[in-house]
Specification:
Distance between the termini: 65 Å
Shape: globular
Structural class: alpha/beta
Number of strands: 12
Helix content: 25-40%
CATH architecture of the largest domain: 3-Layer(aba) Sandwich
Strand content: 5-15%
Strand order of the largest sheet: 1-7-6-5-4-2-3
Radius of gyration: 22 Å
Number of helices: 16
Order of helices and strands: HHHEHEHEHEHEEEHHHHHEHEHEEHEH
Bound molecules: pyridoxal-5'-phosphate
CATH superfamily of the largest domain: Type I PLP-dependent aspartate aminotransferase-like (Major domain)
């Protein structure tokens, strides 16, 4: 165990330091479905949650547990649950406290997949998502009523890359008894949402946590800092007897274990029932990724900042979107308040020549991969208007920050001169072809 709060150290030393039976230093892949009980009393205690331990790998697994401990430590939370994808993490994080007839208040600046989950799939389940503009934190208060179970936002949402006002919205939530759930996928290490009042963090570990584009996964982390009992009327699922677990009251059941009512319920009921489980092999890959996470975030951030500078000076570029390039004073203040030690690997830019120039630029790239992903060690690019956002109307695209010539880059950790060289030749090529076409 380590008492450090530094991401570099935590990623290596938080959680189990070795395999208890073999002494293996690297976390083994526990490729097992079930676990032998010592005797019937042991089995009964585990199922009654009188003792914590392994029963069945849909619900827990030692490799996943090691990753969960590291992620909880990295974010400064008390417990975590590994799940099968970022989408699964978001769905479970909300469903854990929210059912038919309830609502959540959601920032409009979120990933399109999350928007769909909330606006369409959750609607079919009777959960209403009330979307509000994060530029005005008070909009969260206005949209809140007694059936509001959570606020939901992304810390550093793309494509706008406008830092979410975490402390401002968390403060309103705490006044009204509403927890803030933050998706910190784009800014692990550099942003610490629990320090600013968030109650729950979710991640798509698919992105920077894994870092190598090899596995899909998600994580829910409990900050242990929200008083669910104080707001018992708002959270019946945590404070009233749960018929699915022989009448357990989660806030009572966890008293000997610490402030983990939210997380334990998610594991014991939702993970049991929905089975959105991370595989041990994926957990192993995410642990490998975590070991270099802090180092990679520094490098991604440094390269992305250099790319933003380069693009800002380029004649074919109208506008650069990067946390360090906002001109709005409030956004500058938030960026400085919430991002420490780097601004992440994402950069957007707007090309002269709109949709056609954007497509030509993407087709001219030689080193950047053209993929719908972020957070890989490799540099990635996409033209959202013709791909990820093509199902939206132009007005909807504009509302999400996607203009026809907008390009999103997820800057990797290649040498900066090679990254700039590829961008340079692609911009030149897109511009020359445009001149020829004209
Ligand atoms: N959150 C953010 C910010 C994302 O960018 C994504 C995926 O792109 C997700 C969540 C969903 O993650 P996953 O693809 O692992 O389901």
């Amino acid at each position: 165990m380590t008492t450090s709060r530094n991401a570099e150290t935590l990623a290596l030393h938080a959680g189990p330091r070795m395999d208890p039976t073999t002494g293996a230093v690297a976390v083994p892949i526990y490729q097992t479905t079930a676990y032998q009980f010592r005797d019937t009393e042991h089995a009964a205690n585990l199922f009654a949650l009188k003792e914590l331990g392994n029963t069945y790998s849909r619900i827990m697994n030692p490799t996943c547990d090691a990753l969960e401990q590291k992620m909880a430590a990295l974010e400064g939370g008390v417990a975590a649950l590994a799940v099968s994808s970022g989408q699964a993490a978001t769905a479970m994080a909300v469903q854990n406290i929210c059912g038919a007839g309830d609502n959540i208040v959601v920032s409009t600046d979120i990933y399109g997949g999350t928007w769909n989950l909330f606006a369409n799939t959750f609607r079919t389940l009777g959960i209403e998502a009330r979307f509000v503009d994060p530029a005005n934190p008070e909009a969260f208060r206005k949209a809140t009523d007694k059936r509001t179970r959570a606020y939901y936002a992304e810390s550093l949402p793309n494509p706008k890359l406008a830092m979410f006002p975490i402390a401002e919205v968390a403060r309103i939530g705490r006044e009204l008894g509403v927890p803030l759930i933050v998706d910190n996928t784009a800014s692990p290490v550099i942003c610490q949402p629990f320090d600013h009042g968030a109650a729950i963090i979710v991640h798509s570990t698919t992105k920077y946590i894994g870092g190598h584009g090899t596995a899909i996964g998600g994580m829910i982390i409990d900050g242990g800092n929200f008083d669910w009992e104080k707001h018992a009327g708002r959270f019946p699922m945590l404070n009233q007897p749960d018929p699915s677990y022989h009448g357990a009251v989660w806030t009572e059941a966890v008293k000997p274990l610490g402030p983990i009512a939210y997380l334990l319920k998610a594991r014991a009921t939702l993970q049991r029932d929905l089975g959105m489980t991370m595989s041990a092999f994926s957990a192993f890959q995410f642990i490998q990724g975590m070991e270099t996470l802090a180092l990679r975030m520094r490098e991604h951030s440094r390269n992305a900042a250099d790319v933003a500078e380069y693009l800002a000076r380029h004649e074919s570029v109208i506008r650069v979107i990067h946390p360090g390039h906002h001109t709005d004073a409030e956004l500058k203040r938030r960026t400085a308040a919430y991002l420490k030690g780097g601004m992440g690997g994402l950069v957007g830019f707007e090309m002269k020549g709109g949709m056609e120039a954007g497509k030509r630029f993407i087709d001219s790239l030689k080193m950047f991969y053209h993929v719908a992903n972020i957070g890989d060690v490799r540099s990635l690019a996409i033209h959202p208007a013709s791909t990820t956002h093509s199902q939206l109307s132009e007005a909807e695209q504009l509302a999400t920050g996607v203009t026809p010539g907008y390009i999103r880059l997820s800057v990797g950790i290649e040498h900066i001169s090679d990254i700039i060289a590829d961008l340079d030749q692609a911009l030149a090529s897109a511009t020359v072809t445009r001149a020829k076409a004209a």
